[in-house]
Task: structure prediction
Amino acid sequence: MISKTEFKKFLRCPRYAGFYQMQKNHHFMVKYKGKVIDENSTESINIKKLFVDTKDSLTMQEYYQKLEEYTAQEVQKKFQIKIHYSLDTSLQKMLIASYLDYDYYCYLDGYYEDEKNLYLFETKATTSKKIENLCYSEKGKKVSIFSLKDGIYQLRHIDNPKLLEESRYFNLYQKLFDRESDLGQYVFDLAFQYFLYLNQENYFYKEPHLYLAILNADFIYDGKSYEGLVSFVDVTTVVVEMQELIKNDFKRLNEYLDELDISNGEIGAWCGYRRPDECPYAKVCFNDFSCDGSIFELIDRHFKFVVDGKKVDIYQLAKTYRLISELNKEIIPKINNQIQYDVLTKKIPHYRKDKIKAALDLLEYPLYYLDFEAFNCPIPRFIYEKPYDQSVFQYSLHIENKPGNCDIDQDHLGYLAHSNKSDERYQLAKKLCSDIGDKGSIIVYNKAFEKTRLEEFATYFPDLRSKLLNIANRLFDLIDVVNTNVNLYKSLGFSENDAKMVNIYDSRLKGSYSIKKVLPLVSDLSYENLEVKNGVMAMDAYYQFDKVSESEFTKLYESLIQYCKLDTYSMVLIVKFLYKIVNN
Result:
């Protein structure tokens, strides 16, 4: 039987089902380039080497389950029905249906039916901001295609059908039918469930009531109650209307499963290549582009190229070109991509010394290098927090009193919470105010994050407000010097073209300016040598604090300190490198 999750994955592209068969089954037979191959063939072995098992973090699972509990409670209050739900998937209501040649099944987050009505609730750990973002401008104001009525979001054309005749409304409404769109992906889940319901044996019609249960983005936790945390979105009319579309999806999937042809597919945006939603088999399909200098290293590559008078995107370009250096420079429209081309063809790094110097001249000693680690939980844990607020649990701080004089250990300060259950934000903020003096530049990497956190602290803790805002106002974004910032450099007297130009490009960056990509340019230090290597692992480690033995806690605690310490010391080394470029 095929689950809802597998159904969605198999639809991703014609090759997915075949790859899945190859990886998950001990015995398989699929088509490849017109011929049938089995697990012992040379082609199979070569492809299987590229498979990578992806292991998703389970850190948030506890909070997703809590959301399902709160949803059940809110349903009972608002709809006066007691839905069938369980945190144990095996105890949830299960729908099974056959269509064409295959059997399908799904479990329901929330289900209720009586003699006349069917209620389905699909709980999603997203927020009502996605409702607000599905909007257009009307008389200078943003208007969502949904309105809030009796505590439930409902499409505005339900009460005013003429809205469907307005293109600005209708075009946004159509996004709900796109399973790749922000809200459409969730509506699609309900559409799948309803399709199975309609295709059950002994089905007879009942009035459908189909809802998404999502997080109320405006909910602020008072430290006591979660009432009002969940919002409901009535998508009944959309789901009913989608049934013909989803029937075509079932027919298409039937063909994919019959064929199991792993040579039949093209790369495209649906692959999610080099994005968080990357297909687990992307390394197979993009194997030819895994080399240094691939066209997928182009900075801001979501633009059109003009080739032979026609506009093409990066995926169409990839049918002809594999490397940036193979491109004709004339078809590269953006200055920074032209810089990449020059670096790769001439094999000389690009440095804009004048821009780097102009930015460094703004620094005032002592220099403070600051980095926060935060836990963005869907369920607010502490007072004043909203869903997905970045709840700071750690900071790292290096202090450089004189140019080039900063030791990784001796000049390091910081704070790390001792539990993920207790609220230590005030202690953290108070120590930060004590550690940072009243003068000197405070260097961060992507300052919007740290600035927002500091301003939130200033709201939470009035007695620290003045010092926290002073710190926030002194932030200096290091990525502006490594990459660029148009407004900053225009304010320093540079032309708009110069302001747009990246200050540094080296082929080792591979199109990325993340601190982990920049660090190898300036040092042999590496995150790969650490127990905690990235932000996701940092959240996982913090989450485990109250679930492990004392010795394991000590190890996790030290691992987090070392990880965050390297974040700030990396900035120390990058600034040292920048001064070296300017003075060389």
User: Anything to note?
Assistant: Residues 164 and 511 are 43 Å apart (CA to CA). The radius of gyration is 27 Å. The chain has a mean pLDDT of 93. The longest strand covers residues 117-127.
